[in-house]
User: Fold these one by one.
Assistant:
Number 1:
Amino acid sequence: MPKYLYIETVGCQMNMLDSELVVADLRRQGYELVDSHKKADTILFNTCSVRQHAEDKVYSALGRLKHVKRDHPDKIIGVMGCMAQKDQKLIFQRAPFVDLIVGPGQLHQIPALIEKVSRGAGRQMEVSLGRKDAPLAQIKRSHESFDPLRTVEMRPTPYQAYVRIMIGCDKFCTYCIVPSVRGPEQSRPPEHVEMECRKLADEGCKEIVLLGQTVNSYRYRDDHGTTRLSDLLLRLHDVAGIERIKFVTNYPKDMTDDLLQAVRDLPKVSPYLHVPAQSGSNRMLERMKRGYTVEEYREMMARINETLVDATISSDFIVGFSGETEEDFQQTIELVEECRFKNSFIFKYSERPSTKGAELYPDDVPEEVKKRRNNELLDVQNAISDEDHIALIGRTFEVLVEGPSKTSLKQNQDGPLLQLTGRTHCDRIVVFDGNRRLIGEMLSIAIHDASGQTLFGSVVTEHVGPEVFELQT
Ligand code: 5AD
Ligand code: SF4
């Protein structure tokens, strides 16, 4: 008898990968994935703690399940990921019908824990040690990277895959909860990463996205010396079948020349860098403990643009961090105008308990001001994205076709011809009409229209000259 699993995921790419791997693991135990909690025997929430809003969403989704558990006590409800690590037993208090709490460092235990619950062992909780609870080596051991090998039919698309190269973060930006929930920075051995990429390539994967909270801080030391991200890229570049390699997210201070040169010299590595600036004000950067000044960020941008002609850069910003004045905010606007990011992810500051930010600085920018600054910065970024996209009309790009576009999914287009979506090497989204069998192909697409978020184009077909035409008639 198959068992049915429903999973809801919020948060970053790391969480998407974790969910994919947990699903793959449970499939091996005979589970089938379903699209509604109503059909499921086990319901999992993979959670995020970066902002309050993400947590509120999970707690209200759990609230809606209260009656489900009352009517179907055999259904197993689990909370995994960052909020599980952060709130731990508090989740049992706020939602007493939850059966399972599993931190991001214990995901490999999920099948066994579900089994325990279903055998009547009562509710289960497995989390990692806190950052101050034990010697560092012990804390590290308690945060285990979960990277089982996947098979092609277990992945959302066979052509692309996330590959984790490190877990945790040691930067301790004052606003951020990640170092305490995802634990100390730990890089995976390069041979493990390479083996995973080779297996993915053998199964038809063309694009890999290397993941790490600060991916360019990757460093693996063993008897052969130190492997940096640039060395790892060189090694993965040799994997036959892989056509594109991307990596996210970068930490500005670790954007070293060897890495930029690797991106320049290795054609499979995408000239796309996500390097969050967070603010354009030195006062804010210092309070955030980001470890660089805005001048250093600008200098980094200059080095990127010198080394990589045509690279796209994207960024993250937090508006309304403690003490942010109009002047600080104006400096952020100036930085965005100057850097002309491909896109920026903009967030209103959300105070996180037990961070240095919460301890040291009051959350003193009113919500309306945060909202206004968020919209204003977004307008500036959107105007830049619009202009830069319009300038690309008439050009042709190599696009890896990812699947049906959002529009065709919404319209349930199920024939062979439909609107497709894909991305350029620089990570720009391209939408065009084509045949379903083009999914997974690398195609030339000529751009004839653009909006800030999307380029619109058509497939470039081989030109048949008039002399060929004459011969055929
Ligand atoms: N409040 C708002 N945004 C945050 N981020 C991280 N922590 C917070 C917080 N407490 C943003 C940063 C980071 C992105 C993933 O989330 O911009 O780069
Ligand atoms: Fe959080 Fe800063 Fe680490 Fe990014 S670098 S995960 S913002 S602490």
Number 2:
Amino acid sequence: MKIGIDQLHVYTPSLYLDLKDLAKARQVDPDKYTIGIGQDRMGINPITQDTVSMAANAAFPLINARNASEIDMIILATESGTDYSKSGATYLHDLLAIQPFARAIEVKQACYSGTAGIMMAYDYVSNHPDRKVLVVASDIARYGLGTAGEVTQGAGAVAMIISQNPRVLTLNNDSVPYTFHNFDFWRPNYAKNALVDGKYSNQAYIDAFQKTWHEHQRRHHTTLDALAAVCFHLPYSKMGKKALTTILDEESDTTNRLLTRYEKSVQYTRQIGNIYTGSLYLGFASLLDLDESLNAGETIGFFSYGSGSVAEFFTGELVENYRHHLYTSDHEKMLSQRYPLTIEEYETTFLESLPEDGSSVALSHPQDKAVIQLAAMDQHRRIYQIYDKVEQ
Ligand code: CAA
């Protein structure tokens, strides 16, 4: 049975900061951000977008009356969730009008958990071939104003439907997971921003990539020649390349192909930043949307990494006519119609917070045109609103 990604759709909020402006404000050479780190803009969420609303906006175009009755499970992968107890997936279930006899859960393991969700979905569909699973990875990456990680912040979500006979990518059921307890990046429950050992995190990422890649080669006789492209978890666009180049020959057709396609896979991340759990799949969407040289039947490698740490290397095969099922023009439109913030607006937005004392507040933002928004807080409850589709 063929199981995999039937559809995927990306959402990022309507605000961004140009990283040249950030460089100027932090008195850093802009080339460090745009070349050294490889980021151009960072997506910023207004107060009306949190991990739940972003996830709902990512999933909204994928859901119709038919598949809402076929989805048995909603898995929300996030490390910036809104509640210790109530999963964000329960809101998604309601906002997307999924049939009632479904599971709705949230999963966590730093940036890796989107992949955990996909693998759980794969197993579920294997046992229930006529049913579907909605996996949504949604996050807001926060390191803090003036920190080294600030330039690698971002916000967004990727929604995927996992089914049999998928229309985009068949998963090859060959995944190699790897767990290694460390403190490269983490966020204690009392902290609003992540703690990170930046240089060590880069090394931990590369080590996990090499371990999973070599084990994949050993178990499945995988070769680089057999891969049309490799998609990486992208905390910033240079990171995957640092790992990839450790296993490439200096010069060969394979090296050229993988490096050329790597550049296609990082274009959305360059514009949006790190979206943690969704970042690997943001890279995949970027590759699919922007690389016209890929062909159905070709094999894509995927490297997932979540600090702390869990990693996984797996492959999938592009399905015949996959291009007909992409949301390329939606993604292009969404990215081209965002509103640029000044540094002052960015810092104000970053420091804004929701009431924590149970008071009632109605929320709105003039630049938020999303279909689903966090519209109010009342007695510690988040209230979301579905607006009529507003042309952005
Ligand atoms: N022109 C061009 N390049 C320049 C430059 C200039 N003027 N100035 C510096 N650079 C280059 C540097 O040479 C360096 O390149 P290499 O990495 O190739 O050596 C690059 O810019 C970055 O410079 P620094 O290492 O000096 O940067 P930094 O110390 O300020 O911080 C960082 C970089 C560690 C990535 C930091 O942004 C950070 O902590 N980010 C968050 C953590 C992170 O993303 N880790 C990744 C792995 S962990 C993971 O993947 C999970 C996750 O999502 C968090």
